[in-house]
Amino acid sequence: MAEPKTKYDRQLRIWGEQGQAALEKASICLLNCGPTGSETLKNLVLGGIGSITVIDGSKVEAGDLGNNFMLDESSIGQSKAKCVCAFLQELNDAVKAKFVEESPEALIETNPSLFSQFTLVIATQLVEASVVKLDRICRRGNVMLIFARSYGLTGLVRISLKEHNVVESKPDHFLDDLRLNNPWPELKQFAETIDLNVTDLVAHKHTPYVVILVKMAVEWAERHGGCLPSTREEKKEFKEFLKSKTIALDEDNYKEAIEASFKVSTPRGISSNLRQIIDDSAAEVDSTSSDFWVMVAALKVEFIANEGDGEAPLEGSIPDMTSLTELVTGFVISSAVNLSRTLLLSSYDSETIVLLYTYKTDHCQLSCRHYVNLQKIYQAKAEADFLVVEQRVRNILKRIGRDLDAISKTNIKSFCRNARKLTVCRYRLIEDEFNSPILPELLKLLTDEDYSVAVGFYILLRAVDRFATNYNRFPGLFNG
Amino acid sequence: MDAEQQLQAIKQAKVLMVGAGGIGCELLKTLALSSFQDIHIIDMDTIEVSNLNRQFLFRQSHVGQSKAKVARDAVLRFKPHINITAHHANVKDPEFNVDFYKQFNIVLSGLDNLDARRHVNRLCLAADIPLVESGTTGFLGQVTVHMKGKTECYECQPKPTPKTYPVCTITSTPSKDQFEGGGGGVSLPLARNFSLPLARNLLTGTISLSCLVHPCLSFSHLCTPVLGCFILFVHCIVWAKDLLFSKLFGDKDQENDLNVCSNNATSSSEHAEDVFKHILDEDIEQYGRRIYDHVFGYNIEVALANEEAWKNRNRPKPTYSSDILPDKLIQQIGNLDNGATDDPSSVSAMGSLGLKNPRDIWNLEENTRIFLEALKLFFGKREKEIGNLTFDKDDQLAVEFVTAAANIRAASFGIPLHSLFEAKGIAGNIVHAVATTNAIIAGLIVIEAIKVLLCDTNSYRMTYCLQHPSRKMLLMPVEPFEPNKSCYVCSETPLSLQVNTHRSTLRDFVEKIVKGKLRMDFPLIMHGSALLYEVGDDLEEDMAANYAANLHKVLSELPSPVTSGTVLTVEDLQQELSCNINIKHREEFDEENEPDGMLLFGWTQAPPMNMDNSLPV
Ligand SMILES: [Zn+2]
């Protein structure tokens, strides 16, 4: 087969090869394979998870058939774990599927070390006491835990692990890393080579807005004692200043510059979120520290304070800029006839279209060049930042007595590119949540229109579990 | 809600499901598990390998079989006592007419393209059957309830035009991006109020151009990191796919720009008419090289002849196959005879050339080999299909050919080459798809369906599945929108058309308005009781000749003249859609701003993109 990964093509385009590799390396343990657990594994198996182990001590009964499509009449009386496991294996033969016909509750009591072999344990429909025990076992063994309970049309999912560090956090809203508030020398030099006072309209309207902003900020600072616009008044004034530089109405690059002018005024230095991470005590690394924290340490004392000039490493990519426009082939093809008249061409075969197309984009040549040059400057700075961080990482690895190459170039590069967006998640023990809930937080959410329903259900489900623990049955069951 | 009453409603319901793909599989399973007893499924597709990461009712061994039928059989395995009827057919087939729809209580849609969605919407309106429409793409999803007179119909909000070029503009203009799905793609009006960064985030790191959700979301921003290059490469793909591929393997009668040869005096007889024609008994490689030299060599030379055009820019380099590959290809084609691969859909030029990794970027020589080999394989193994092929992203050989052709052209223009994986993403406008989102959406469809069956009108919700930027929630239900009073599909408001009745022909009107804007496939046009035009397979010969003659006439000279004040009735009997159009004569049209030479009012154009749109509170 020419493309062995065809089966995963549609998802590779979401999480990439790295994401897929992480999936394929993972080994998952499911406790109780009712509908919730089975459905969960189905989605993971389809995506190509490495291995699964289904643990369930029950036999299939007639009542299971209506709600779990992995079971049919021939399954009745057989081990539920075995039937579900067989179905899942059929979905994807690349997945290693195993089952254990034993009660999860019993295993938690008798064989806690069993769980340490997994990447992730998914526990469904477990009673409170077992969840608390399992959570402690997983925490000790550094195994991730997801606890899920469903009840009719409601349910809850809880993640539990000590710490989860995300490099590629892909946040929703994030300002591009243009460094307009703190341009480095090469960027300034490049901006200086471009004259904004040209009278040629074509050249004027094809100057990338980044260049406009860098230059205008310099001009502004010269007139304001070295300061960039910071108050509301000044920001307004700065926009007016930009507006005064336009020489025609349709200069989209200036419109973009005005829209993006706030980027000049954003505070320099790292975000409070990143500050919190580098100030974390885990950033004091030793030989037991994870790669993530080693890289944070390299960032912390070393890079940001020195070469970084107070900033995190540059991301190196720049956004689209309207300076490059009019590249619409579809349009060109459809209006080829009209345009060919302008070009005095008598026919319109495919090459004429190229001509027309290039004619149309003639003006883009200049801006294309600017754009590409600008791109190179950002990339070069990002590369330089990366090399420095890499050196620091190697030094730290040496200091703490680890292999110099313990962290790959690729990982360091990805870390640098995402340095501004690092995320650290820590989760309380489920036991702590049960025994000492953060009441003020719950009360606040209960009165919040967006969350009150969800939090109400959370409390109800907790009450159901407590009831089940105390009375050994679920509430309402005596009604039939 | 009384549980018994709910169960009765479910058990008595007769449900039509259109689409048995990503959403469809999950939906059919959930319907069956929710006690639905009588379900019809329509899907014309057959199972592809790339479906298997989410369409869990299908196995490797089912590849090539009908989705509808395999899905039915799979569900009957665990729910043997319910009725499922599978139709392996196009939802647009005439057998699925209004009377067919009227037998159902509700229609549930998990389709993957706009055209079919529109069709189903129109039939549901005509039959007055409620429709629950859905779509997913990656981690985004949406479910909407459309009920005539109560909520908006699928077309109340204008949709982008499909089948235009997937040209990703570097600006943020919405332009003419393509929205066709591929895995239950969302093409719903997700939002008038959807924020771009949000959606972008969900897809970061991809190169797809698919504009998933709405014209407002032109994901041009995804084209990083080599934006400049990428944009130009897109044009090579468009050229390779829409011009070259369809010229060589598609419908020969199609109008195609490659077809028209240069009228330059320089054109020799060799290049005169149909260079693309395969001469009887001509060696296929010879033929391939002839095509190659024509499109990458000769055509570029012709273009270069216009010195004026190449001032200030890099001149493309004509490329001839003998310069790249002086020798004849080794007879890989020999494996034609040993029949190792009998299934024509599995032939691959990469396979026969021993290229394995779709993420490798081939050099010019490799691209040339692939080009020639793929062409040979098409003629050797899949000759029957030639003339009827349309590009399909799941057709390995087609993707190989298009990748190679685009790369050779790119090389000639000095644009960086791309891997098959990347090229496929661009050419196929591939929609990302995962099982989880489909499962969530299918669950929501069933919840809405139950509300509809119980006539619980006030509880209908339009639900988005997305990562909200600030609210820590995955699902966002909002109240459905009211019908758009000026929607030409679900309201009776007449349209009006400004046109120069002395200059525009009936053909102009049919192409630009009836097909181009109203999206009718089988229109019938009447002036009072006089029939001006009709499309259909079973027309009387004399009528057909009449209509053909009418097409060439200007409106005012038709047998029943169309002038200012005329009201035309336009109908599509298959879509059961009828509208009236008031004609107003107008003398002049601005060539640049009104290129159609006519203007339709009461029909809403897709809105311009507004990046600052925020989510509704
Ligand atoms: Zn409507």
UniProtKB/TrEMBL annotation, chain A:
Biological or metabolic pathway of the protein: Protein modification; protein neddylation
GO-annotated cellular components: cytoplasm
Any one GO molecular-function label of the UniProt entry: NEDD8 activating enzyme activity
GO terms of biological process kind: protein neddylation
Keywords: Ubl conjugation pathway
All copies of domain THIF-type NAD/FAD binding fold, residue ranges: 8-161
Alphabetized CDD domains for the sequence: APPBP1_RUB
Signal peptide: none
Similarity field: Belongs to the ubiquitin-activating E1 family. ULA1 subfamily.
Protein function: Regulatory subunit of the dimeric E1 enzyme. E1 activates RUB1/NEDD8 by first adenylating its C-terminal glycine residue with ATP, thereafter linking this residue to the side chain of the catalytic cysteine, yielding a RUB1-ECR1 thioester and free AMP. E1 finally transfers RUB1 to the catalytic cysteine of RCE1.
Protein name: NEDD8-activating enzyme E1 regulatory subunit
The species this protein was found in: Tetracentron sinense (Spur-leaf)
From TrEMBL, chain B:
Binding site for Zn(2+): C153, C156, C487, C490
Residues annotated to bind ATP: 19-24, 43, 51-54, 67, 112-117
Ranges of residues in domain Ubiquitin/SUMO-activating enzyme ubiquitin-like: 497-589
Keyword Ribosomal protein assigned: no
InterPro entries membership: ThiF/MoeB/HesA (IPR045886), ThiF_NAD_FAD-bd (IPR000594), UAE_UbL_dom (IPR028077), Ub_act_enz_dom_a_sf (IPR023318), Uba2 (IPR030661), UBA_E1_SCCH (IPR019572), Ubiquitin-activating_enz (IPR035985)
Pfam family, one: ThiF
Active site (catalytic residues): C168
Domain spans labelled Ubiquitin-activating enzyme SCCH: 384-424
GO cellular component, one term: cytoplasm
GO aspect biological process, one term: protein sumoylation
Domain of life per record: Eukaryota
Residue ranges occupied by any THIF-type NAD/FAD binding fold domain in the UniProt entry: 4-488
Metabolic or biological pathway: Protein modification; protein sumoylation
Membership in a protein family: Belongs to the ubiquitin-activating E1 family.
Oligomer status and interactors: Heterodimer.
Protein name according to UniProt: SUMO-activating enzyme subunit
Originating organism: Tetracentron sinense (Spur-leaf)
